[in-house]
Amino acid sequence: MKLHNMIAFSSLLALSAACGSKEKSTEPEEKTTSGETTVERFADIQILRFEVPSWNKLSLKQKELVYYLSMAGLAGRDINYDQNNRFNLEIRRTLEAIHEKYTGDKTSADWKKFDTWSKQVFFSNGIHHHYSMDKIKPAFSKAYFTSLMKAVQHNLSPEALEAIFNPNLEKKRKVKDPNVDMIVASANNFYGKGVTQKMVEDFYKGKADPNDPMPVELGLNSTLVLKNGKLVEEVWKSGGKYGQAIDQIIYWLKKAVNVAENDQQANALKVLIDYYKTGSLKKWDEYNVLWATATKGDIDYINGFIEVYGDALGKRANFESIVQINDFDASKRMAVIAQNAQWFEDNSPLMPEHKKKKVVGVSYKVVEVASESGDAAPSTPIGVNLPNNNWIRQMHGSKSVSLGNLIEAYNKAGGPALTEEFAYDQEEIDRAKKYAAIAGKMHTALHEVIGHASGQINAGVGQPAETLQNYASTLEEARADLVGLYYIMDPKMVELGLIESLEVGKAEYDGYIRNGLMTQLQRLEPGQNLEEEHMQNRQLISAWVFEKGQKDKVIEKVVRNGKAYYEIKDYNKLRTLFGDLLREIQRIKSEGDYKAGKDLVETYGVKVDPKIHAEVLKRVKPLDIAPYSGFVYPVFIPIMDSNGKIKDIKMENNQGFIEQMLDYGKNNSFLY
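The structure corresponding to this sequence follows.
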């Protein structure tokens, strides 16, 4: 599970590779890394740069491990594009050709519109917005685009050209609307032509065994297609679908095995390779057990088909990769959360039968990201807790990480404008300035370490992907958020030395309610409802506690000078409401109560108040804040000795956004 960065930067406070499959053999010129955090801004996006302070502290063997794992991640980048839409790779290569070869007028209004749109496509890993999943509309004409292709002698299929410019085709990457066939309506490439939602549900209904104590994640790594009138899974593996890219992933993972820091790490990598070779979901679970329990070493990684947010039914996973270096000082400070996981579980407001009697294997680290790819880049999570399979969490534990250097980059690029505009009063603003940064970090930690690791499913109920279906991800994110919200106002946090006072918790409550009810709406176009799971969960929680607290005036809506504000009147009663909702959502998950889960999400998490939405858009416009942000990544360059062996690996971090996208297209593309 991922925790995405909260909207813009004030709310966050409230909360690459060498080319080819072979190492370079020549020593490059030394380049300096830019000290600027902000690289560029376009459309609704800001591109940032981050630092990796621990890089020069690593041994050569550790640097090699980071390099090989990074290359393995970039080898899967094409897969994510193709998963998002069947035309994406063809369109991306056209954009690459135009940017590389076009020598015409690059000062014209049309070129600037094309340049912005193409950057949006690169940022979103395809033609659909990375967050809203709506198709990104080009502001230039088909005729102009055709002239660009002609100028660089590059052709695009008529179908792909129509997909770009016809507003009625490929409209939305993922549709989460229970009133339509969500599979047919979605433009992602997880399902073949003619496959319907009922077909998918019936197909897996016959395969899922609710009494299996160790169920696999059905459908996680395959495309479901019709062949001769029958549904068939095209498995993503070596020799199967995406095999050319997966073979490159395997190539680099094998190199990583040879420089692994310890046997546990090496054994997990070997099983990951076997999984990519076979496509076996049993092998995937075997790997995840080994990976979750391999907690020693300075380097760790995420690599695979993991998160199912891109599939309306929450079954199929996008490829993603994150390579990370342990931040020892920060991890040591925060390890106390994992060490007290059983206390948090025992003292939670859950029903006794839904609590874990023994919380096992929870680890937590603050890390420095070195590389990201696929669904994790350029837009990135700020926290991750894996593996996702519930029985593995319960029996073997999980790993949680907070991506510390990315959070730091967000903080450096941010500003107080959004908080100052939407906070109720100066006291709230001052509290945010003093405490919101640590509050956001602490909520992330509690969300990932305690939230996703807490609770248990009743025997015989089955997995949430089967029982809660398209509502499973929203409810899971809400559940984890509520754990964090409940405990950040607990005196135990002060006792453990994690926060200096409960004012930290109040700052998080202020920011969460402000974001859930108002500021996150700047990410939506007028008339849109919420479909993205994290946005749904934040509004669900905020709207539910606002409504349930009306009698006691826990949160009051105040209109001042024509502007709406939300003032929390009683933080302790609000904490009690968070606990009440947490207990109910855990019950829904534990019992597989689809109707109650659907009612909760549809009632509180989907519909947007058009008046509030219009007001938010009006108020944020003068602030000129980019609602979304992402990163350019370091480039790792092997330096060879006279015998062709690596003697060092240089890390450079000075590329521009388009420069990096074009380099990736040249050097890390394997699907044709």
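The chain has 27 helices and 15 strands.
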